[in-house]
Amino acid sequence: MTDPFRHTTLRLFFFTVLGLLTMILLGGGVVALMAQHYGLAIGQDGVLFDTVADRQHLRLILLVNNLATFGLSAALALWLTYRDRWNQAAGLVRPVRPGLIWPSIWTFVIGLPLIGLVAYLNLQIPLPDWMVRSEATGNTMLAGVLTFDQLPELLLALLTVAVVPALCEELMFRGLLQGRLLSGIMSEHAAVWAAAVVFSAIHVEFAGFMPRLLLGALLGYAYRWTGSLWIPILLHLLFNGIQVGMTYADGEFTPDTEMDTSFIPLLIVGSLSMAATGYLVYRNERSLPEQ
Question: What is the pLDDT of residue 25?
Fold first, then answer.
């Protein structure tokens, strides 16, 4: 089938750079003003978010930052390139291959233990001091987002950590980057992994780079198989939302850098997950129509 959006890579690239610069400047300015207004020293070492108000303000600031940096910049670039067809170009359509919806979901779910094993192995890699300090600063902010004393905190945390990232990051990294920019200059498989690398790197979490890379790849394949961005959006939303819910139920935030799972059981389950995920990827790929 001929792609109606072919030959737009260069134009989309230009508008993507324009959209990113515009929204980073505008969003960054809004975030800086909000932080100053609320009296929050975001991104500095040793900053604690002890009060409900501080934590809610932090969540709101991060929500605005994510919305502007990824969501609005991607939507702007897509609209400038494709106008009223921008949502179709981004994959915000019904699944093209409905029969691969559940296989895509099961592949993602069965791949989760593998992500856990990769996360454990990633933590065994020694990091230089500046990366350790960066991780500590990031964990302090994450602790502020995922510490709850009241139900409204949970609701805003879900919006900040699950809903907005699922929509905005999938629009940017799967819809625009993987589906349009990268697939125009490389194979679709390469585009899945290249977008996953950028997706992981942009979070600047060195101790979690590899598991987030694998997460991005599974989301990318869900998009490739179904032809609809709504499927990775749903999976991303559930993945982040369950983590927020578990933290709320546990009553205490534990950073990923303090993972204390026993290695042998994790190795066994992760290895089984790798084998099963590999088989499902192979089977789903075989189910795709001939290009």
Answer: 94
